[in-house]
Automatic annotation (TrEMBL):
UniProt lineage: Bacteria, Bacillati, Bacillota, Bacilli, Lactobacillales
Span of domain Schlafen group 3-like DNA/RNA helicase: 42-386
Domain of life: Bacteria
Protein name, UniProt field: Schlafen group 3-like DNA/RNA helicase domain-containing protein
Pfam families, per database record: SLFN-g3_helicase (PF09848)
Length: 398
């Protein structure tokens, strides 16, 4: 079996938290100890960019908490604690961890809706709830997932004494979980709230590349940096990029193709849907019924991943296909977005409470790009389907 730490937020056995991560773990531990006996709910919100190591710290803090909860004595012995994540692939990893540690139980890890429904039905409150990928919490009813409330965070805050929430506004990818700073403030205004921000970048292995991505997802086109220890390239065709990804995977592993959701697909029906990138044609990722993350399964080297299979996970090298929704305006030298080209209909499901979703939809597309571009530790390769954007990126690469 592959090392559980590969591509995931789980640290290898010989690795340790950074000083910033250790400081946050200690802050979480102090926050829990100070507040778990209070009658009111206390909330700690942890923010930070994709790749800042938020999930790494949350995993370490929850391990420390559950060791104390399952001890025979101590202030936290016997406490009822949960870690929630609204992401199927990440939940698989957490449950796999549970099978390897004596202080974890698989029931310690849940999706938000089952937690809300179970604790509300039982009429009880958890002592501590940690929420990973909190930006994926629903902000509207979702009958398909059996959530009949209006906001999952609001419900969780009523069902726990201490809540530790990992949150990143730049990783919102669906209207049904669309948050704004004003909404988060409104939902949490009746609670004692503490904020903590992680500033490190643990994934993209070069600060100049990370800065280029930050400008790009805001629409600004900058010359590509050429760092010594990070491979950053633009391709005029998808096939050579895929050829290089296959070589990188043979050399280092964890090298995959991913794409924006600009190519038709449906989850049901069993049909194979394809992504076209110049002369390259590869199938979209499939529903993963195994217990392994998408990037760790060898057959997925011959698929194209999406934000739903790669969000929250690491790659060594990423070949990113920027689909037709992304264009280029030469008069302004800026990236453009065409909402009509985006094929993820689930992401754009109607919201009766939002009068105009145009800006929200554009933000979702740019957030998805940010997620894809910040997957790789050692190399990032780009291909743009739009000819004008592709030509401009090739110019910037020179």
């Amino acid at each position: 079996m592959p090392d559980l730490a590969q591509s995931t937020f789980i640290l290898p056995q010989d690795a340790t938290l950074t000083s910033e991560q250790s400081a946050l773990e200690q802050r979480i531990w102090a926050f829990i100890n100070d507040n778990h006996n209070t009658t009111s709910t206390h909330l700690l919100i942890i923010s930070g960019d994709a790749g800042a190591g938020k999930s790494v710290v949350l995993d370490a803090a929850f391990a420390q908490l559950q060791k104390a909860a399952r001890a025979t004595s101590g202030e936290l012995a016997g406490t009822d604690n949960k870690l929630l994540v609204n992401h199927n692939e990440m939940l698989k990893i957490y449950k796999e961890i549970a099978g390897t540690k004596s202080y974890f139980r698989k029931k310690d890890f849940m999706k938000p809706t089952p937690f809300i429904n179970a604790y509300r039905k039982a009429g009880k409150r958890a002592d501590v709830v940690l929420i990973d990928e909190g930006h994926l919490l629903l902000t509207m009813p979702d009958p398909y997932n059996k959530f009949r409330g209006h906001n999952q965070l609001a419900d969780i805050l009523q069902l726990a004494r201490v809540v530790v929430l990992v949150f990143d506004f730049h990783q919102l990818v669906k209207l049904k979980s669309f948050w704004t700073p004003a909404l988060l403030k409104r939902v949490t205004r009746d609670y004692a709230v503490t904020h903590y921000h992680l500033t490190e970048q643990m994934r993209v292995g070069d600060a100049a590349v990370n800065d280029w991505i930050d400008h790009f997802v805001r629409g600004k086109m900058l010359p590509l940096p050429h760092p010594q220890h990070f491979d950053f390239q633009v391709f005029s065709d998808g096939q050579p990029m895929y050829d290089l990804i296959q070589r990188r995977d043979a050399e280092t592993g964890l090298s995959r193709m991913v794409a924006t959701a600009d190519y038709p697909f449906t989850v049901l029906g069993g049909k194979t849907w394809y992504v076209q990138a110049g002369s390259l044609r590869l199938p979209w990722d499939k529903i993963n019924f195994t217990d392994r993350p998408w990037a760790q399964r060898p057959e997925t080297l011959h698929e194209v991943g999406s934000i739903y299979t790669i969000q929250g996970f690491d790659l060594n090298y990423a070949g990113v296909i920027l689909g037709p929704s992304l264009g280029y305006d030469p008069s302004k030298d800026r990236l453009t977005v065409d909402l009509a080209q985006y094929q993820d209909k689930e992401a754009f499901k109607k919201r009766p409470d939002l009068a105009d979703t145009t800006d929200a939809k554009a933000a979702i597309i740019m957030n998805a790009i940010n997620i894809l571009l910040k997957r790789a530790k050692h190399g990032l390769y780009l291909y743009a389907a739009d000819p004008a954007l592709r030509q401009r990126l090739l110019q910037l690469a020179k």
